[in-house]
């Protein structure tokens, strides 16, 4: 079965990534891609990887009636336009932060409040590893934040298996690429300033803490650093369990959670250059790499989690969730393989 | 129909790229991948993008009998092992320089001679845009060099249409990524030394001149610079035609040569960031982007050509040629789409 | 003797570089640094390397009376404000393009004309290797463009020694870093788009052609590519002499021109990683590295020239010229040594 | 007064950095630089920033008698050659790990034991912020590790002021550049593999833990990641104090410890791009930038510390310590200013 689809905000990085996935997806037919600034221009004008696609950006004011609408708009737009989106499509997948948190209090604490909190409970958080059942048949889906996604995937097996129950100390130190900042640029995002950085842009108070709290029940100590790559988010989670754990038990926990997951790979060390999860290894793919080390000195579990922030951390997650919602085989359109070697994707 | 395939030298970058393409190709069944240094280790040990592939490196000394053998060995190996390769497979595709030039004199001039020059004429140069007919049914194929491929693709329409006939001045200034140097490393290739460079590693005397001479009949002034990317080769060809040419005529020439080509895209300028060919736009794909500008001041045609050196410049070209040789639809297994944004792939 | 100095446009990259040089210069006393957008903020707010400097940006509307004023404003500003600059200071050094060309016709051909062409002949082009005598005592100095500087330095010995007299074919292929685009950013300059590029941003028609024509008497075929570094300009000049030349003669020519020059180093090949000029080797310094190879095949001289576009290509050149104009030892304040290893400065 | 100096292991990155500092230092006269592999070649052969230096590498087997010897040899060499070094010079500064820890037990736990543990107590750890008094007149100095240096500088004020006394949870997440791996290369250090990484190369068990334990009395949870830069080490220290602390108190602590320190700058937030410590801001300098944020949610102090691993983390620290040992003004030869903008130094 084929579903017609619209991408709102298709000019941006996430919107472009959605278009890339949808034009290669056998069950979607991308019929509309909106952009105010590039109206009437080809998709290839903004996204050189879509030069062969015969579609032009249209105005976001004239939404076609479609089966599925993906909104890749800046935070705040979906809040105000959600009625139009839902009128235009049976299934709405929002990639902004506007509906990803389950209660108004999160928006009061981490954002500038919410204009339609009554809709929050109707939106399903898109992460399949967390919410596969709720996603089935869902009409309103909200994709997670990339840093939160990397963290949640890293810690989920510890929560599911009782190693973490909310009282333990957890420090999460995230490193992210520049695509996270979006296509709009700005001084800090300019190449001369952004190149070669290790920039602690959110040592404390990052908004993605809210998702980790909401969906894992953990209040983690969370810091985010910008590093020199374009795609990628890497979460190093320093976990101090209350009881000692063995490596064997941990592997059992991680395997139990992820062995059936099509997009999570456990990276089990061994030798070689790529013995731990790395964003390079998953760039351009919907895969997450998860691994860990045990530090006997500090009785610490060091969980390592790597994703492509544009894929598993955003557009790929959205399509994955839409697949599940619509009853499509969930891997469809998301099996792109990564590259080796690859620079700073 | 499915063809069994072996990759010799699968531990290296080009060998790994071949494996990536073959495991995703519906008409090939990768049954052997050899590596002396990583014998018995999984492909994923060397290539993190192949972690899911259930195959281990085997010794290059024990070649299975297969339909097609791809040799991605250092220059010189194929010369000495060609008998073994041809005994093991009906179709041999060599990715080294050992058989890509059509006459012994080239090896005398640019290499250290040749040990079996009598075989040179049986090898078909793999570039389909040049040799599609000869490739059909070919049993012995030699893939081109990446810098030569970028250059030949840029200049071919000018040769085919008589703008260039060998007497004109042509300067080719190539910029390449670090993957061209292979996986073996070395001081100049180390990250601290190689990072951020504009390094004129072959201002004159680059071996790929030989291919341009052999297949286009042009003696170009050729220089190659290492720049900071991993994948990619970009050729800027400064062409001084004997007669003035118009932009319209040139477009007609380029369209005439490439309109039917599945892997060559003409990039026609216009506005936006990506108005010229760029390696970033084709990274991870088998596409070549070709474009040009006319410089009225110097009566110069500036031809711009961009490829992924690992794909169109090597492994992709090899699989493309093998498709043609074996009668498989030539696009099969080579339709990966690029990414946007992407860093320094 | 100490000269008071003002930097106009100190918020930008070139202005910041001027401040860096002047605060470390024993004969200058930086008393004013103007910035409209950062008025009243410390220099360190814009330039982290100046955090220890106890000076705040002031309005460009209130210029103090000083000995020397350096204008690092966008093109066009100096044209309209030159009277104010000259009223405020005995010596004015302009780093924009507004006065660097010696005749109005260049501004008609390459820019949008000129509003005060009668002043052009009073401005001395700042490149000491070309104009040392004229600079002595000069009250109005115009620094060269970075790409032109790299090119002129590479070709000057050939012109001085009659190898080039204007009739020969010369192709100049320049690779530049992102700092050339200035601090104002923009979509093409954003890290996700600019990272990892080989982008032919001016295949033809670059404005710096005008300087090469004006000061060397050469109409070169000129193309500029953006590559992934922040600082640096590298010019590869493909020169086709009318008469054959020997390597020994060329070295004699280059030594004759540069042996006494304090900021030009001839890089004579040999072995090792750094056997040719490279922008990395001169980053952060006022040095130019110049070298060449002879290509017997194409009877071509490949001249290689590397500078830091912010230093020898702009602020360093300006201070160097000011030193000469004011009778200060010309090396003063410009002897910073480069780093090794260094990434993509 | 001028001291003659030898650098042993001058071919490597740290050795080259020592040479750079010593040739620019008014109180040192570099008379010998040893390298086995580059014997008789000029310093400029290995280090392009030293092309003007008229000195050739000599054999490490023939050490001249000098005032001061700096050993920049791989770990293990100083242990076996310390007698020769001390015979050759009155003052020996070792930059390896061989003598930096104060007790044999550390070498048993973190290294492969020690061959002359009786000498350990005669070596003074070089970090002046920790050991200024002991360094005065010292004849045997051992420079700290770069990751340890960044961490110790970040946490020292908390220890000195009793915020940390050894019982608190401290997680240190370090990001380092590729120069840390040295000049010898290897597969993981090759540009194609190392470019664009966030690679957790030591999630647990890093040897620099030993120094933090030895000199701060803290057992921190320590992880090190390789990121894409050449120079630089950035430590993010997540500190959980037993008692709540105020930002004002913390600033008082940090100012108390560092206000008189010539090479430590407190970066106090505010606006702008560079409101936190960053390796880019200190690249090429002997400065450390230190700052912090308070996270009310997790009652966490996030301490941020950035150094150039080659300077403050190694060669600069060594020269700083030698200055103090010899009674030279301690800033001498170490006042190089950083660059802005700068890429990935």
UniProtKB/TrEMBL annotation, chains A, B, C, D:
GO terms for cellular component: cytoplasm. Transmembrane segments: none annotated. GO terms for molecular function: N-acetyl-gamma-glutamyl-phosphate reductase activity. This is N-acetyl-gamma-glutamyl-phosphate reductase. InterPro entries: AGPR, AGPR_dimerisation_dom, AGPR_type-1, NAD(P)-bd_dom_sf, Semialdehyde_DH_NAD-bd. NCBIfam families: argC. Signal peptide: none annotated. Belongs to the NAGSA dehydrogenase family. Type 1 subfamily. GO terms for biological process: L-arginine biosynthetic process. It holds the Pfam family Semialdhyde_dhC_1. Catalyzes the NADPH-dependent reduction of N-acetyl-5-glutamyl phosphate to yield N-acetyl-L-glutamate 5-semialdehyde. Residues 4-138 form the Semialdehyde dehydrogenase NAD-binding domain. It is found in: Cytoplasm. Keywords: Amino-acid biosynthesis, Arginine biosynthesis, Cytoplasm, NADP, Oxidoreductase. The gene is argC. Pathway: Amino-acid biosynthesis; L-arginine biosynthesis; N(2)-acetyl-L-ornithine from L-glutamate: step 3/4. Its main location: cytoplasm. The lineage of its organism: Archaea, Methanobacteriati, Methanobacteriota, Stenosarchaea group, Halobacteria.
């Amino acid at each position: 079965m084929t579903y017609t689809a619209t991408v709102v905000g298709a000019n941006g990085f996430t919107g472009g990534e959605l278009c890339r996935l949808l034009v290669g997806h056998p069950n979607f037919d991308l019929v509309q891609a909106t952009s105010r600034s590039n109206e009437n221009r080809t998709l290839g004008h903004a996204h050189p990887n879509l030069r062969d696609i015969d579609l032009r950006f249209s105005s976001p004011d004239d939404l076609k009636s479609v089966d599925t609408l993906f909104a890749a708009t800046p935070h705040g737009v979906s809040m105000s336009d959600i009625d139009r989106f839902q009128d235009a499509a049976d299934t709405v997948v929002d990639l902004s932060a506007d509906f990803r948190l389950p209660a108004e209090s999160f928006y009061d604490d981490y954002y500038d409040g919410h204009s339609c909190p009554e809709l929050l409970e109707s939106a399903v958080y898109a992460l399949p590893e967390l919410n596969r059942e709720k996603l089935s048949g869902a009409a309103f889906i909200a994709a997670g934040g990339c840093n939160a996604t990397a963290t949640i995937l890293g810690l989920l097996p510890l929560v599911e298996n009782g190693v973490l129950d909310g009282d333990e100390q957890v420090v999460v130190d995230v490193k992210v690429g520049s695509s996270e900042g979006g296509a709009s640029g700005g001084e800090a995002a300019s190449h001369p300033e952004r190149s070669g950085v290790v920039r602690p842009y959110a040592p404390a108070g990052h908004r993605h803490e809210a998702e980790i709290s909401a969906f894992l029940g953990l209040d983690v100590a969370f810091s985010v650093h910008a590093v020199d790559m374009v795609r990628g988010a890497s979460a190093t989670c320093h976990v101090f369990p209350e009881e000692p754990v063995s490596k064997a038990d941990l592997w059992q926990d991680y395997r139990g959670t992820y062995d059936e997951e099509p997009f999570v790979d456990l990276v089990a060390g061994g030798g070689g250059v790529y013995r731990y999860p790395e964003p390079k290894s998953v760039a351009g793919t919907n895969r997450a790499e998860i691994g860990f080390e045990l530090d006997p000195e500090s009785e610490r579990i060091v969980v390592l989690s790597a994703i492509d922030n544009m894929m598993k951390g955003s557009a790929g997650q959205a399509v994955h969730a839409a697949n599940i919602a619509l009853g499509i085989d969930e891997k469809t359109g998301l099996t792109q393989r990564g590259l080796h070697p690859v620079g700073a994707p």
